[in-house]
């Protein structure tokens, strides 16, 4: 497909039908779009929101809207209201648009961001971070894993947080699209890394990870940045580094015992490039990590060892980035069975009692259910 388009369909109803819905729509249509953005309270309660304020819909990433205006009795009346071409060529369209106060926010190839009046489809502004088109194949970067794409944005208190392919993190003014701050997560000469993940805002921190575990010497990590300044607050590496140097934290010292040879020269992998959920009550952020680099494991000189924390689910404290628990789905991965698939949080009844769980349909073909407070394994089907 050469051109890919998002088409939003709005209800087109006869005047004699669903009058309350029509009245609600008319009331909305008469209001000009506002560009005020969600705060911490709005994000904490996003599951009950009529808007789509964060990737996955809410912190539990249930991807479910509570709106009931469209159902099986009227869905056949949906009709085309408008179309908007978000971008042409260069990669896939994978981003989930966000919606707040009558405005749709989206991101397309080469990290170009746009804001649209949801009533009319009119473009309000467009921002191009001007990524060097040679970045994807240039000798410095060594290629982009995996494609010229972005998965989404974050909104917070008048800011649109933008992940830029070339490893910049930028905050735009939601009303005008003008930059407020820009942070380069890694130096320009860093090899193999790219930024495609939708950032999430948790407690005034933007949390995001980098892709690139297909390349050596990539060492996976995710980090938190001050949402108002872009200053890095903490960084968590998902695999240990050179053991001749101090480990960044006790969790990595423990992980080093599950590696052998001179693994650090190969990077190790463990990218964080998609999944991230948050439980405000437990004060835990959950992330999934990618495959080892290089793979198979024989190339990492660690036969029979687990290679923590590749292909794992990690629970960290968002205040300081310290590891609370981990579960490794694919020890010593040799098959690119990364565990970055969506992490769904829910309270469900298991064997007669309510459990606070984390669920994942893992790339290896198992559906995992874990206790999200302790990391205890419950089931894998």
Structure in words:
The chain is mainly β. The protein has helices spanning 19-29, 40-44, 250-256; strands at residues 9-11, 78-80, 98-100, 103-108, 112-117, 123-127, 154-156, 159-163, 168-173, 179-184, 200-202, 205-209, 221-226, 232-237, 268-269, 276-279, 284-288, 292-293, 312-316, 323-328, 344-350, 353-361, 367-371, 377-380. The strands form 7 sheets. The protein has a 4-stranded antiparallel β-sheet, with no helix packed on it. It has a 4-stranded antiparallel β-sheet with strand order 7-8-9-10, with no helix packed on it. It has a 4-stranded antiparallel β-sheet with strand order 11-12-13-14, with no helix packed on it.
Quickly list its features.
6% helix; 381 residues; four-stranded antiparallel beta sheet; 3 helices; mainly beta; disordered N terminus
Explain briefly what this protein structure is.
The protein has 381 residues and is mainly β. The protein has helices spanning 19-29, 40-44, 250-256, and strands at 9-11, 78-80, 98-100, 103-108, 112-117, 123-127, 154-156, 159-163, 168-173, 179-184, 200-202, 205-209, 221-226, 232-237, 268-269, 276-279, 284-288, 292-293, 312-316, 323-328, 344-350, 353-361, 367-371, 377-380.
